[in-house]
Specification:
The protein has one domain (28-249): Metallo-beta-lactamase, Chain A. Helices cover 38% and strands 23% of the residues. It has seven helices and 13 strands. The chain has helices spanning 4-16, 72-86, 100-103, 106-111, 120-128, 200-210, 229-275, and strands spanning 18-19, 26-33, 36-42, 52-58, 63-66, 90-94, 116-118, 135-136, 141-146, 149-154, 166-169, 174-178, 216-219. The strands form two sheets. The chain has an eight-stranded mixed β-sheet. Strand 2 (26-33) and strand 3 (36-42) form a beta hairpin. The protein starts with a helix and ends with a helix. The relative contact order is 0.10.
Length: 277
Amino acid sequence: MKNPAFTVALLYLFISSSFAQEKGPTATITPVCEHFYLHTTATPDQAGGIGAHGLIAETPHGVILVDNGWDTTTARQVLQLIATRLKKPVLLCIVSHWHADRVGGTALFQAQHIRTVSTPLTASLAAKAGHAAPEGILPNDTSFTVDGVKLTCYYPGPGHTVDNILVWFPAGKVLFAGCFIKSAAATDIGFIGDGDLRQWPASIKKMVRRFPHPAYIIPGHQQWNDLNAVAHTLQLINAQEQTEGQQEEEEQQQQQQQQQQQQQQQQQQQRKASGHR
């Protein structure tokens, strides 16, 4: 049976817990299920103001965060929301990959002595990109407990980026997939310049085998409460591969046409040269 007090608290949290600046950076907290919340940050200077989802897992004496906002401003807003609404400290932050929408608040977190961790690969890529790097201490498949809450960090293989990891909380059956999984509302695969489109489907299959029965799969952006996001992501990958295949064919045809034109021009020049002899 649902707890009425919890339901009222979640409704209040959803309605009131936002820093809304019409043209500036914003952060909000949205309930997912008992003890789990989304933090969503957006800034007009990044990706056209699109919101980026992170996760908050509440423990008895604090919270665990997955990802920390686009930048210092949005990260500070997330921390203020947690302090105001949940009234608990951040015990740990896990970074899911090296892009700015995941790691942008790391410098602030480190300045406030909030331990921020990820894999060695993510730490290395973040540093190379000029971001403050999380501690690169997580193995590719590791389970541990923070303040009584169990979680698993798992690297399924390349996808949206070569380093993207998943974070699984068995207590709520919440799987934070981040940008590794596209929202069911997404209309295209998005930016893939740092990823691996060819290996992505195999990586998704590994995810499904490792975590077969999630109640929630949280994507990195847009609508988040639809388990069809996994199948939709595979469809978007397939569509992108077909588009790239068509582009390759068109480029090959253009190259062939250019080669034929060059050959014809050379033949014409040779015939002209022969006629002057």
